[in-house]
């Protein structure tokens, strides 16, 4: 038999048990002072993690971002501070947990034999016992300082997540209650931005309109509204203006002067789920939403006459300015948009 054949014949034989080295106790196992010192070090790491989490929140509000950001070493101070503080908070929790396991949890050698993938019921019971033993070995009950500092560090980690939610967008506040319409703002054509006089509107006509603010610039020549801000404002302030014979209009109490020569203005946003409306039937004075066929009678204060909409179409009160153009008397007196936004 060759040497190669001898090697093949030994394949599959069990590896000799190498045995275990004699257990070497750690300093914290034999020195009470070292044990106490390690406990304080770990608690300090968890405490520092809590501090860095708080600093994350402070940095979020302290440093300016946008057009004139606060800068550190050529980088945005906000990003640098947020990254460092949150990173150190997580790192210190991890390092503290590792030190806890290495220095204070039970340090024993064990032998675990291989077993089939499907554990027996006895093995499962043993696993549960081992888990409980591990919990006991952690000595959580004996180390309240570590327990409390770790709980504080982990608990405070929820703050960055809550604070970061602020970046999803501006807080709504009363944004659902109001639009950009104000007293004296002209009603203009939504394409050309042309202001409108009563003589420009014929009976039966419908005009898609917007506030003139969307076509104006500030003193520096920059548009008052642009980008996302413009789209958000349009989504609430878009209106339709119609003209009917004055005798066909039945204004509600307090709305007798909301129109000008039979010209009325209503929100373009359906009160069902917010679809834009402009399907106008001039003979019946009905406005139809193309999404779910909600129908509003504009001659009767925008009242719902058919469909799933739950409330009347909000009306914008109109008047004339000194130059004879149609302007708003005020903002809408009720929230515009879908009925699931209703308050009361």
- Cα Rg: 36 Å
Q: Specify the CATH architecture of the largest domain.
A: 3-layer Sandwich
Number of helices: 8
Described by the principal axes of the CA atoms, the overall outline is: elongated
What does this structure look like?
Helices cover 34% and strands 13% of the residues. It has 344 residues and is of the alpha+beta class. The chain has 2 domains: 25-109 and 121-168; 187-341, Rieske [2Fe-2S] iron-sulphur domain (Rieske Iron-sulfur Protein, 3-layer Sandwich). The strands form 4 sheets. The protein has a 5-stranded antiparallel sheet with strand order 3-4-5-6-11. It has a 4-stranded antiparallel sheet with strand order 7-8-9-10, with no helix packed on it. The radius of gyration is 36 Å and the shape is elongated.
Quickly describe the structure.
The chain is an alpha+beta fold and 344 residues long.
Describe the SSE topology:
Blueprint: H1 3-9, H2 27-30, H3 32-62, E1 71-72, E2 75-76, H4 77-103, H5 121-137, H6 144-156, H7 158-164, E3 187-189, E4 206-211, H8 227-237, E5 239-243, E6 263-267, E7 279-281, E8 286-288, E9 295-297, E10 303-306, E11 315-316, E12 318-320, E13 326-328
Antiparallel strand pairs: 1-2, 3-4, 4-5, 5-6, 6-11, 7-8, 8-9, 9-10, 12-13
Helix pairs in contact: 3-4, 3-6, 3-7
